[in-house]
Design goal:
Blueprint (H helix, E strand, L loop, with lengths): L9 H25 L4 H9 L5 H8 L6 E4 L15 E8 L2 E8 L10 H17 L3 E7 L7 H8 L1 H11 L4 E10 L4 H5 L2 E5 L4 E3 L3 H8 L5 H5 L1 H8 L4 E3 L2 H13 L38 H5 L9 E3 L7 E8 L2 E8 L3 E2 L1 H16 L4 E7 L1 E2 L3 H5 L2 H14 L4 E10 H6 L9 E4 L4 E3 L3 H18 L6 H18 L2 H6 L12 H12 L16
Helix pairs in contact: 4-6, 13-15, 17-18
Length: 529
């Protein structure tokens, strides 16, 4: 692929400077999650001779191997700590890709709030779909009691997921470093393998105060749920670790002996890096999302050898489709060019998605769309049924989807490009991305038009000053709610990422996806023609 990007132009320099500012801000947002409960609680945790969640993960995964952290901005914009008091991600342990779930005990003792629940459920979904072993690094005080009404009933799915994983012959391992009380006791109780840290792990359905209240019995932590008791008497612990480092060693040893094999596609042993520099992605996307850009410039900096075999290049030019290879894995790509999806683009996409399913090829969706075209001409031309064809193809496609929101992702275009509601295997956003029903100005304008029409129908004068205030308020609200941080905080994607990391992250995802064979759809519903 050739590039038309002028890296010496003022436009490129302006785009790059703006994106670098957003990347710097992204680092600040991530720092909030990395900080856990703050210096005070991290220091207190260390003073007790304990490791933090991320320190445990770093020791658990293979030296110098990557860890793809997921949903790191969970709970952003809420009253809960950024990160959702839990760390989740994919790491390689003894050569085996695993889903790692670690409670962060520096945040309210690792207690679970609604965001924790969403984040752990998303991790379980990914582990299930990619058929990954799961390792839980446990130290939690249980439910965040003031929010129990939001987590008690749906929280039971956590335990169900562990048992279903075991039934599917997908190993589950619990390394218990501290408290795992009440409902949390069922995490080790339902895991295939359990390691407990001596004088650290505390696993019981009811602690001493609850036992006293319920039965009048006097007891202590060790006799009720200490690691040594569970290793010698109850049998709940399979391994007794002398300290946290020993527990991690034992966890790695368990994974080593799983006799785990990947059954999916093996990537090409040798592949070329992109010819064009991924660092240039910073200057390609305009600061104003209304300004279109050529997605081929993005694709050329993501795929192996910067090579794309484009499909239907002269038809439906507002959507680029084609085949490429990424980190040695074959992939089909759909990328928005001019923002709007017309009938030709929708039909082209539907055919391409079906073809990818015929050849068991995963799909990558690169979002920058304002949605499907509106207007009398386009309605009469069948935009609804053509858009429905694309959405039908996306809905019933069974090859894994990867989605990256590069810019705008509005309206039904978000659906057609395999947004969160369409269960992409992984979904990420760049820090400039925005997702909502429509653009803030358009949404405020629609509400204004409806309000003005209502006033006219009643014969009432319309308050223009109030209209301006209302439009400004709604625009500000929608602008805030469409930001990548906000949507990521709601778990509508799996993370906000630096554009320069996109290729590496997609490579990790493709490797995880290919733990099992990729299988395309063998049938579709009715396409309205």
């Amino acid at each position: 692929m050739k590039s038309a990007v002028d890296t010496t132009s003022k436009i490129y320099a302006g785009n790059r400077e703006s994106m670098l500012e957003r990347v710097a801000d992204l680092a600040e947002q991530h720092a909030k999650a990395l900080a856990g409960g703050g210096e005070k609680y991290v220091a207190r945790h260390h003073a007790r001779g304990k490791l933090t969640a991320r320190e445990r993960i770093e020791l658990l995964i293979d030296p110098d191997s990557p860890f793809l952290e997921l949903s790191s901005l969970a709970a952003w914009g809420t009253d809960f700590a950024v990160g959702g008091s839990i760390v989740t991600g994919i790491g390689v342990i003894e050569g085996v890709e695993c889903m790692v779930v670690a409670n962060d005990p520096t945040v309210k003792g690792g207690s679970s709030n609604p965001s924790t629940l969403k984040k752990s459920a998303r991790a379980a979904q990914i582990a299930h779909e990619c058929h990954l072993p799961t390792i839980n690094l446990v130290e939690s005080g249980g439910a965040d009691l003031p929010t129990q009404k939001d987590i008690f009933i749906p929280g039971g799915a956590m335990f169900r997921n562990i048992t279903r994983a075991s039934a599917a012959r997908r190993p589950t391992i619990a390394l218990v470093f501290g408290n795992s009380t009440a409902g949390g006791a069922y995490i080790p109780g339902m895991s295939d393998y359990v390691v407990m840290v001596k004088e650290g792990a505390k696993v019981f359905l009811g602690g001493p105060p609850l036992v006293k209240m319920a039965t009048g019995e006097e007891s202590d932590d060790e006799s009720l749920g200490g690691a040594e008791m569970h290793a010698r008497q109850s049998g709940l612990a399979d391994y007794l670790a002398v300290d946290e480092h020993d527990a991690i060693r034992l966890g790695r040893s368990i994974v080593k002996r799983l006799n785990w094999r990947k059954t999916g596609r093996v990537p090409e042993p040798t592949y070329a890096e992109p010819v064009l520099d991924p660092d240039e992605l910073l200057g390609i996307v305009p600061t104003d999302l209304k300004i279109p850009f050529d997605p081929r410039e993005v694709i050329a900096r993501l795929v192996d050898g910067s090579e794309l075999d484009e499909f239907k290049p002269l038809y439906g030019s507002s959507l680029v489709t084609g085949y490429a290879q990424l980190h040695g894995y074959p992939i089909g790509i759909l990328a928005n060019a001019q923002g709007v999806l017309f009938s030709q683009e929708a039909q082209k996409a539907a055919q391409f998605i079906q073809l990818a399913n015929q050849t068991d090829t995963p799909l990558l969706f690169l979002h920058n769309t304002t949605g499907y075209m509106v207007g009398a001409e386009y309605e009469q031309g069948g935009i609804i049924k053509h858009g429905a064809q694309m959405i039908n193809a996306v809905s019933n496609s069974t090859v894994p989807h990867l989605s990256v929101v590069m810019g705008a992702s509005y309206g039904a275009g978000h659906y057609g490009m395999s947004g969160r509601a369409y269960d992409p295997r992984f979904m990420f956003s760049w820090p400039n991305a925005k997702s909502s029903v429509m653009g803030p100005a358009q949404l405020a304008g629609v509400i204004s038009i409806v309000a003005r029409g209502a006033a006219e129908s009643k014969g009432q004068p319309y308050d223009e000053e109030a209209d301006q205030q209302m439009r400004a308020y709604i625009e500000a609200q929608i602008e805030k709610e469409s930001l990548a941080y906000f949507t990521s905080g709601m778990l509508y994607d799996d993370g906000v990422i630096d554009p320069r990391d996109t290729r590496t992250i997609l490579g990790i995802c493709l490797s995880a996806i290919n733990t099992v064979p990729v299988k395309g759809a063998e049938g579709y519903g009715v396409f309205r023609l």
